[in-house]
Every structure is written in structure tokens, then in C-alpha cells.
Amino acid sequence: MMNDPLSIPNGALVVANDIVYTIDERQILDHVSITINNSEIVTLIGPNGSGKTTLIRIMLGLLQPLGGTVKQKPHLQIGYVPQRLQIEPSLPLSVGRFLKFGVPKGPNRQKGRRATVLAEVGMETMYDASIHSLSGGELQRVMLARALLRDPELLVLDEPMQGVDITGQNEIYDLIARIRDARQCGIVMVSHDLHIVMASTDRVICLNHHVCCEGKPETVARDPAFETIFGKQAAARLAIYQHNHDHTHDSHGHTVPNDQNISDQTPVELSGTQSGETPHGR
To answer: How confident is the model at residue 23 (pLDDT cuts 50, 70, 90)?
Structure first.
């Protein structure tokens, strides 16, 4: 239940405490407690069916837990990028109109505002393009832009790399880190796919119906619980390192110099964690 938001700790956006959730007597979440703070990036990982999306929906107030409490910062503004989005193929829909339908009436629906958030995600030239013509990576950027129209204090991304190739994933990870730095919002990313772990995340939470372990990526990789779930190979290859980029890339892969060097963190591939799956995209 949502409970006493004024008692939330300073700097916290959402606090979930001792969450319990079952479906047909099957335990989905077993006394799960997590806190999401302002200006931090949290990556929630775990195998399929581990309860990640259910936990997110409970934290957003879309599901009621059977036990435990959820507290949100008062008047918390949330931007949500869902795991899947079904768009009727026969519906003629431009990127600009798609953004317009994603927010309530008000100044954020104005064309200038929509164009601004498209530029923020590197899609400024695609305003009039058909939503059906976009690649996987382009569509994810547009969905991210739609979430940003709400000026979120908390940005929630459920499986944001579905349908995106490896190069596109790296670029989107860099983009998400820049958004956090520019907007100082909290970001939660959900994933079951350990091909790539976001090294610039501040905290990784490993969920398998309960919180198995959490901490910085390099700390989680050494936790026996992580190895139990994902295997020795995945744990051994979670090598985190940093380097500086003097450029980024736009949605078409073209080099875009930075105004100044930005310390980015490089996602590291984790092999052997899926049964031959490879992300697809154009």
C-alpha cells in the first residue's frame, strides 16, 4: 500500500519495504525492500520470471502488494518506458504525433517542446518520420523522449534494450547517463539479459523473487549469490572499467564531438548467460 509519503528519507524518491506478492499461491516477491534515490542510476537484474517487472509496477502504484509498504516522494513526477509497445501497423503515425499522444494536455504537448526532447535523445531529424519506419534503437530513443516530456524526477526503463543491436545499446547507455547528469533525475533500468551490464550504474540489485545481492557492479559480481544465479562465467567476466570519450554518436551512428570530455563508463559484454540469444535491430 502507498503509505505516509512525508516520512520518506531525505533524497529518496521511492522506498519499497518488505514487499510480498503472490499469483495463484506462487511467490513472486518475497519480502523485498529497495530504495531509489535522487540522481542515481539503479540497474535491476535477474532471470526471467524473477519478479522485476512486478516490483516496478508495485513501486509505481500500478499494483497493490499483498504485504509491505511503498512510499513515494510527494508529487513525484515519473517517466515510464514500458517493456513492449504495440502500435497498430496500419495506423499512419508520425514521431511527432506519437509524442503528442504520450502526455496530458499542456505546454509539454507543444511542437517546440516535442522537438526539444527529440533533440535531447539525438532524434531531431525524425520528427515527421513514420513511427513504423524506425529501427529498434530509434524507437527506443523516441519512447525515451516521450517519457522525458513529463519532466520526470524518476525515469523507469523496463527492458530498454529489446530490439536494439550491440552498438545501439552502447549508445543508449551513454545517452541515459547523460540524461541523468543533465536532469539530475533518478533512473531505474530493468533487465534479464546479461549480455551487457551498464558499468556506469551506481547500484545493481540482483532479484530472484527476493533481493539476492546489491551494490556496485564490481561488488555484486563477487557475491556468491550472483554466481549462483548467473554462473561462474558471467561473474568472472564482469570486468568494469572507465575511459573518456571526446565524442558521441547520433541515432545514425555519425560522430558528434562533445563540447568537453565527459567521463563515460563502458558497458561490458557478459557471455554465456543466455542460451544463444542475440539482440536484434537495424
So the answer is: very high
Q: Please give the backbone phi and psi of residue 96, each rounded to the nearest 5 degrees, phi first.
A: -60, -45
Q: What is the pLDDT of residues 204-258, one digit of tens each?
A: 899 999 999 898 877 777 778 877 777 776 666 554 333 333 444 444 434 455 5
Q: State how far Cα 23 lies from the chain centre.
A: 25
Whether the CB-CB separation of 38 and 153 falls below 8 Å is answered with yes
- Residue 16's beta-bridge partner residues? 34, 70
pLDDT, tens digit, for every residue of 127-154? 999 999 998 889 999 999 999 999 999 9
Cell of 268: 561490458
| CA atoms of 222 and 181, how far apart (whole Å) | 28
Phi, psi of 85, deg, nearest 5: -135, 115
Assigned CATH for 5-77+154-262: 3.40.50.300
Distance CA 209, CA 31 (A): 9
Distances (CA, A) of 248 to 6, 180, 199, 228: 41, 16, 17, 36
H/E stretch holding 181 reads helix 166-183
**Residues 5 and 74 sit within 8 Å (Cβ to Cβ):** yes
Question: 180 near 189, Cβ under 8 Å?
Answer: no
pTM of the model: 0.76
- Angle at Cα 66 formed by Cα 62 and Cα 67, nearest 5°? 110
Which of 145, 242, 234 is CA-nearest to residue 201?
A: 242
